[in-house]
Amino acid sequence: MERRVVIVCCVVGFLGLLSAATGFAAEAKRIKSNQVKFPSPGECVYPRSPALVLGLTAAVFLMIAQLIINVATGCLCCYKGPHRSNSKWTLALICFVVSWFTFIIAFLLLLTGAALNEQHGEESLYMGNYYCYVVKQGVFAAASVLSLACVALGIFYYLSLTLQKSGSDTLVMSVPPSQGGIAMGQPQFPTQTAQAPVFVHEDTYMRRQLV
Fold first, then answer.
1. Distances from the Cα of 207 to the Cαs of 181, 202, 204, 211, in angstroms?
2. Most distant CA pair in the chain: distance in Å?
3. Distance CA 69, CA 54 (A)
4. Rounded to two decimals, what is the model's pTM?
5. Under 8 Å CB-to-CB from 97, ≥6 apart: which residues?
6. Which of 6, 103, 137, 191 is deepest in the core (most CB within 10 A)?
7. Residue 79's pLDDT is what?
8. Phi and psi at residue 111, in whole multiples of 5°?
9. Helix, strand, coil percentages in the chain from 3-state DSSP, rounded to 5
10. Residue-wise pLDDT tens digits, 32-41
11. H/E element holding 149?
12. Got the DSSP string for 4-20?
């Protein structure tokens, strides 16, 4: 596995854990209904709570992790080749869609919970009774669980597509290039060999000249 792939997975996984941790911390620090004071009818006094900062921090960590994994993966629709009909590529595509779906829900839950947690002094009248706004239990916790699912799915489809792409490149590089259609053969005409010189004695040569 390449070093770049390991670094991307570690960074995205760490950001996902930070997002989930700050989300659970926001769930623990959110304002409860028993903490709201009623000094007078129609007035709500809320205590100070770090849930707003924790919720926004969790949303930022989740957004950065999602951006990193998608930038590292690249355009999913641009992947071409025979692996498009592979079941692993189909599973990676499903994980990609579900990852974005869980990201949107988790991001909206974190922002909504952080905003509602800071609605101080707001009250509503229902059947003659006043009610103060508080974030319901489990909003930040659900967002944290969805953040972990989003990051896990993102890492899965990133690894699937990256490993398939590297495997395809290795297969292409291992195939030797085809040779051209020019036939190399031996020449069809016989080669002429040089004959060795013949030495004749001087007397024999003189007799041949006289004859």
1. 63, 9, 5, 6
2. 157
3. 23
4. 0.70
5. none
6. 103
7. 55
8. -70, -40
9. 65, 5, 30
10. 878 777 777 6
11. helix 139-174
12. HHHHHHHHHHHHHHHHH
> In this structure, what are the phi and psi dihedrals at residue 204, rounded to the nearest 5 degrees?
-65, -40
The string of DSSP letters for 67-118 reads HHHHHHH--GGG--SGGGGSHHHHHHHHHHHHHHHHHHHHHHHHHHHHHHTT
d(CA 152, CA 186): 65
Which of 53, 66, 158 has the alpha carbon at shortest distance from 106? 66
**Conformation bin of residue 184: beta by default, left when phi > 0, alpha when psi is -120 to 50:** beta
Cα angle, residue 62 at apex, residues 22 and 6 outer, rounded to 5°? 110
Quickly count: other Cβ atoms within 10 Å of residue 182's Cβ: 5
Terminal C-alpha separation, the chain? 95
**Cβ–Cβ under 8 Å, residues 143 and 58:** yes
Parallel, antiparallel, or unpaired: how do β-strands 123-126 and 129-132 relate? antiparallel
